[in-house]
Amino acid sequence: MILEVKDLSFSYGRKETLKHINLRVESGETVALLGKNGSGKSTLLKNILHLLTPSSGEVTVGGMNVGTMTIKERSRLLSYIPQESRNIYSYSVLSYVLMGVTPTLSTLSSPKDKDEEAALRALDFFGIRNLKDRDITTLSGGERQLVTASRALVGGSRILLFDEPTSALDYGNSECLLNLIRKLSSDGYISIISMHSLSEALNTASRIVLMKDGVIIFSGSVEELIKADILSDYYNTPISVEYYKGQYIVLKGWHDVVE
After folding, report:
1. Cβ-count burial of 237 within 10 angstroms (0-12 exposed, 13-18 middle, 19+ buried)?
2. What's the pTM value of the predicted model, to 2 decimals?
3. Four-CA torsion 62, 112, 185, 196, nearest 10 degrees
4. What are phi and psi for residue 9, nearest 5 degrees?
5. Over the Cα atoms of the chain, what is R_g?
6. CA separation for the pair 182, 69 (Å, rounded)
7. In the chain, which stretches have pLDDT less than 50?
8. DSSP secondary-structure letter at 253?
9. Where are the alpha helices (DSSP H) in 78-169?
10. Can you point out the beta strands (E) in 44-163?
């Protein structure tokens, strides 16, 4: 499966927020969108999903234009895990995750036993089966994030878009979620992740996309990003990256960056 963003631009009113974005992502890739606030990361995700309508250009999946699809058709291909998920209705976690199968059901159909089994497997994947009977409105922000990710997985879409997925998680849960995203990549999923943390991006993604003022200024592997030596200029502070015991360590000045 291939997702392509072709010459995509987007404007809020008269302000052009995305400018001629081109991006091609293949099965098994994890792409980290890096950039300062206002660089266009979240806006790009929403344009890929057609939650926002591009001013020009298009997004295709397997050669099919996402913009011409019905909401149900898009939902079968693309799932969105927002930065924060607020729920005002009292559903059990299992019932909420089961809603993820809706795009696969015919009109007036209800989830079957096999769908519940798939929902439980998704909860198992994210290590939160113990929450299945909890009221979703009682969960912490981090727990809701994992439940929302489970719902996205159970729908069967192979393209997952995450907007700042670790922002509400503590360090342990952040590492758990990022490890699971790496596993999804090895299983052939496409993951596109808007991120602030440079160290998380370097240690999670197979490709880094660096954005500035609505433009992609770099797209390549972690090794290519380090070799390009552009991070210090971009963040306006001395940055170096070392590889130690299987992980990239980001150094700011003389000190490790704590993110």
Report:
1. exposed
2. 0.86
3. 100
4. -130, 155
5. 19
6. 29
7. 256-259
8. T
9. 93-98, 113-125, 141-154
10. 56-61, 64-65, 78-81, 159-163
d(CA 65, CA 51): 14
Whole-number Cα distances in Å, 187 to 149, 155, 182, 206, 218: 16, 16, 9, 14, 26
**Type of residue numbered 255:** H
* Rounded Cα distance, 39 and 215, in Å: 8
Residue pair 52/43 in contact (Cβ under 8 Å)? The answer is yes
Number of Cβ atoms within 10 Å of the Cβ of 96:
24
Single-letter amino acid, residue 231 = L
- CA neighbor of 111 nearest in space, from 170, 153, 142, 155: 155
Residue indicated by tokens 């929403």:
46
Cβ neighbors of 117 (< 8 A, separation 6 or more) are: none
Q: Contact 40/211 with Cβ under 8 angstroms?
A: yes
Provide the token pair at 252: 């700011």
Q: What's the chain's length in residues? A: 259
Residue appearing with tokens 């005002």: 88
CA distance 60 to 7: 12
